[in-house]
Amino acid sequence: MAMNVLRPTEEEALAAWAALVAADAEQVARVREPEPPADHYGAVAHRFRPGGMEALEWPVLDALISPGERVLDIGAGGGRFAVPLARKGCRVVAVEPSEAMRRTLAGAAAEAGVELEVHPVGWPAAGWSIDADVSLAAHVCYDIAEVGPFLDAMERHTRRLCIGVFAQSGRGVALAPLFEAVHGEPLQALPALREFVALLGARNRRFEVRTVSKGVEEELTEREEAFELARRMLWLAAGGEKERRMRELMERWWGRAEGIALPVQRRFIGVVSWEPPRRE
After folding, report:
1. What phi and psi, each to the nearest 5 degrees, are found at residue 158?
2. Is this prediction's pTM over 0.90?
3. Percent of the chain beyond pLDDT 70?
């Protein structure tokens, strides 16, 4: 049994990943109070533009990717990495299905004076014929149940290096005690860095992991911003009984005179790079 846990086959690792994603999806569907928006990122896309949040991963990505290389940025979002990569001289092909994110990306690119090739599709993309020197999937795989085909396509269209960026833990884990206190059940955590490393090992890939960290224990956030963040993480409607309970607990546990001292969402982040299999 221990050998199976520590040395899963690729099929076992993929099945375990899919099971974690399915457990999260089932829980979210059950506890969610507001109706899901047509574009999940519509209200928060601005946070994913360059400078919208701290990019601890950038120095590692900057060292791994060279000017002049063609970079496939899968789930490019608002351009946190696509725009800096284009600014350093990379030819960036951005894949982003969210309209709100693409608008943010276009604005950030225009502001920076760079050009990107943007495709409004999900991944894997049907009929895709573009190859890149480097492919990047930063914080996009957590809730993808069929991660095997995602990685297969990523490797198939990459000549030199694939890069995945993952937090130590999945969405909302830092708020797991709050989730359980409000909803009355434990949080079903999505797969993250350690699961991805296990999966790459099971796929027999040659990989490296570089980690970065903020080195702090809590993040002081303005009150209403903290409540909005927690409401999204707990899938709560504004003004409901559960939201009232959430606010009460946040003030009791993390309230400070200057704001809410949220637990750090991502204590460390891993940048995982690996060589795609050689093409025949």
Report:
1. -125, 130
2. yes
3. 92
